[in-house]
Amino acid sequence: MFPPLAYLQWIKGRPAAAEHDLGSSDLRRLAADDPDEPVPPRLRGLSPPTGDALLRERVAAEYKIDESNVLLTAGATHGGFLACATAAALARERGADAEADGGDPADAVAPDDAGGPQPCALVEKPGYEPLVETPRGLGSRVARFCRPEPTVALDPERVGAAAPDLAGPLAHVTVTNRHNPTGVLTDRETLAETAEATAQHGGYLLVDEVYAPYTVGDGEAGTAFGGPTGAGLPATVTVGSLTKFHGLGGLRIGWITGPEAFVERARQVEQHVPALAAPSVALARRFFAHRDDLVADARDHCRRNHDLLASFLDARADLDGVVHPGSPFAYLEHERTDGDAMSAAAWDAGVLVVPGRFFGMDDGVRVSLGRAPAECEAALAAFGRVLDDL
């Protein structure tokens, strides 16, 4: 049911092996050091939190929502899995109830039984492979809706038009914000309109927000870590983590937000899989104790890398693409070759960039500036030499 994920198999080991890493999208400031040291370099030496605020309280306060709307998870991947599984379970139960209402009440399938029609997931295209394969592995039928080029904007009308054609009850519509791999950012109003279109067909809007904090200004008022969020919107579930913007992937700290009934059902689903570890929770509380300084540092890192990538693209007449405001990653196409050839040539020269085929965009590559700005500047120079020789 759960096939190998082509992108994750391809990327494994490459960031460490590459001389120049333009593939990793998390903002890593320091290289990993002693593997037996449990405290990440970014948190080392910082004082522990004062007071007794729980981690769930801190996350809820970040989004200005109630604690009952937050479930802590072992990273964003775990959060996405729980969100998909929960939405699928609710869709099955809803479909079973609808079938029973239209027929003999004795034929009703109880929520705990394995009955009910096959739920459907509607996932953005182009998009990140696990967002397609995870619901499929959980037994949902997956359909796609397009975010059309060149803008790749999220269009609520496209979601509303695609939902009625599904072969079963709609479990969820899945989008990324920022969009992966292009970096397009969607505002809260558009997310709200998309959630409304989804709710009209009984499903939840699932927003993967791991890249939403990638902004270069102070951010919008009332948003998490400075970026727009769908948290608190009706029929909306968001996934976030400390991995990408904060460079703390080793902690495996993430969360989902959603309506209280959805989060409560997700707690029941969570009982079937491992949960997050107490040491990670303690270190995440340390992060929140120094939240303002660490977010400001991440914001500066993001701004500097965005400026480097934007300047690089401006100087290359052979590249086509857009570095969206605030984004340190972008999808770029070359005038003389496709994404696989560009990525292969770069790899031969010690430069890691990700072929767009892993996102359904064969003509280009995703270029991500996650490392320290000085490292990224050297990596872009090396990548430029590769492009000169194509």
Describe this structure in words.
There is one protein chain. This protein is α/β, with parallel strands linked by helices and 390 residues long. The protein folds into 2 domains: 6-25 and 293-388, Aspartate Aminotransferase, domain 1, CATH 3.90.1150.10; 55-289, Aspartate Aminotransferase, domain 2, CATH 3.40.640.10. It has 12 helices and 13 strands. Strands 2-8-7-6-5-3-4 form a 7-stranded mixed beta sheet, sandwiched between helices. Strands 9-10-13-12 form a 4-stranded antiparallel beta sheet. Strand 12 and strand 13 (364-368) form a beta hairpin. Helix 4 (76-102) crosses helix 8 (260-270), helix 6 (156-162) runs parallel beside helix 7 and helix 10 packs parallel to helix 12. It starts with 5 loop residues before the first helix and ends with a helix. Residues 103-114 have low confidence and may be disordered.
Helix- and strand-based class?
Answer: alpha/beta
Provide the CATH top-level class of the largest domain: Alpha Beta
Mean pLDDT: 91
By DSSP (H or I, 4+ residues per run), the number of helices equals 12
Sheet with the most strands: spatial strand order: 2-8-7-6-5-3-4
Main β-sheet description: 7 strands, mixed
Q: In angstroms, what separates the terminal alpha carbons?
A: 40 Å
Domains, number: 2
CATH topology title of the largest domain: Aspartate Aminotransferase, domain 2
Outline: globular
